[in-house]
Amino acid sequence: MQRPALHPPKPVQTPHNHKSPIPLPASPAPAPIPNLTPSSILSAPPFFHRSQTITPTQPRPQ
């Protein structure tokens, strides 16, 4: 009971974690993260940076 309390995002998946600890980390991470808005913001800076760096670099030399 102390573990789920420390992890607020893992309180709903606690029942599933007890049954399958392997699919739990793969389900809550790739499923809710890509669908959630917080994931978009986290993936936005790194992805955008790479895209912007490659985009201006290709057309500039040409």
TrEMBL record:
Source superkingdom: Eukaryota
Chain intervals with Polar residues compositional bias: 50-62
UniProt region (Disordered), positions on chain: 1-62
UniProt biased composition (Pro residues): 1-12, 22-35
Entry protein name: Uncharacterized protein
Phylogenetic lineage: Eukaryota, Fungi, Dikarya, Ascomycota, Pezizomycotina
